[in-house]
Amino acid sequence: MIATCYPLRVGLAGSNLMSNQILLSLSGACLLQPLPRKGTKLELLDMPQFVAEELELRGLNLPVELIRGHSATTLEKLRDQADRMHCPCLILYQDEVLDFHGNPEGATQTLKNLGRAAKMLGCGELAVRVNCPRESIVSVAASMKMALEVIQQFEVNLLIRPSVQPVDHPEVIMELVKKIGGFHISAMPSFANAYATGNGVETLRKLAPYSAAIEVTVTGVGKQGDAAGWKLDEFVEALLTLGYVNKLSIDWCGTTNWVQGIQKTRERLLELMGREDPVA
To answer: I want to staple 254 with a disulfide (CB 3.0 to 4.6 A). Which of 102, 197, 219, 243 is the partner?
Structure first.
């Protein structure tokens, strides 16, 4: 039986002690792009070493597109390589919305397939977006609760990622997480979604206690280390004030040099957290 869902651990102030518990990881959609200046893409099995050594991050979150078409053997090799580089595969995530409202059977089957792939990769979490009209929260939550029980055979937890277009508001995500209930469901908000709601700090304040990871969406970095498009400094400082201690995942969505952009974003995050060492 799935127990009642409780908010995840947050403290009362953004101390260095709390910031030192935050793991900085990478949302790996940027790895689908060629390397700047070289014009060639990284091989899948080379990605953990690149993320660990060049980007100095200690976790890799994988979009479904990155592993699509690869065999189970390759996924297991990727897991082993990531572990060797001390940059484990943490989260498998999908951008495509699962329709638990209109097609719960199809959504459940997709979730099962994703759960199997997540286990092969060694990911402890699977993150998806969900079609959930506000008036259908009860029925969607019931369908997702049954689907969650199905994927427990793969020992992965489920994270709900709010959409940006159309904008998922925090109240819907919070209510959905609470109605599904249990220790295997939480949220994975993003700075992009928070910004799109019109009140990013308030959105993060509401969702942070229910979040196992938060995507730090960045479209560019200025000379002073400030992020273009999203209020990086303001949002991070708000999370630290709340005492957020879970994962931050850099999600580069810019059009300039993505390697330098991620490196600068990482440096800025460490400055904001009062840290020098990237390891949580």
So the answer is: 219
